[in-house]
Amino acid sequence: MSFTLRANGPHMVGRSRRFAWAIGAGAGLLILIGAATVTRTKAGEPVGWDSMKRDVERLEEDLDDLLLDSPNFLVSGRDDAHGIYIDEVGLILTFDASLVGSNWNGSRSWSWNGFEMHRGHVVIRDLGDLDDEDDEDRDRSDRDRSDRDRSDRESRRDRDRSRESRRYERGKEELVDFMVDSKDLVGDLRGDQWLMVVACMRDSRHLDREEISRVVVKARVADLKAHDSGSLSAEALRGKITIEEY
Questions:
Q1: Are residues 4 and 97 in the same domain?
Q2: Whether residues 90 and 169 fall in one domain
Q3: pTM beyond cutoff 0.85
């Protein structure tokens, strides 16, 4: 029995040491993996993101409020504005919108065999025993009504296009005002960077006709900071803000 203990003792100690080494190596590997994961996460964040995140969220909220209250832009609801920071560029705020639409549910009239559709209602005409002269009068009346309806639709389209054009111009002015009012929320951005608002426009007859689907409003951060410090007037800042449309 004593021989067996001496023989097995070293064998069991060796196994214990190898087992302890395996546990230690595994724990070390887990620590390295965790550290690498943390390093990748931190490395993926823009420099200074923690300090600027709150201002970016404020800008998103302010732009959302503007869009919801705007008489010119039509959005699907809150949380349409999203901020993206790119170190080589600056801060980009994006949103999807359309122009406040026109009412295309106006009167549309037609008639056929004594039935009429007028202002959304079906009217059954009592034709009775009409002679040929009555038929001619009715056809002439239908043609006159059709011509009037066509003229009304064309006039309505012209008015709608004119309204959309005015809303578009006023909407761009709203975005310029937003840029001017954001002067105190760009403190963590560098002077050589940009603050941009990119509007992705859709479902507008006026913009479709003008072939415009993107509107980019941008200002140099240095100019915004100069306005915040009082060395650049609001009017001068507006002159430096650029608008690109394509």
A1: no
A2: yes
A3: no
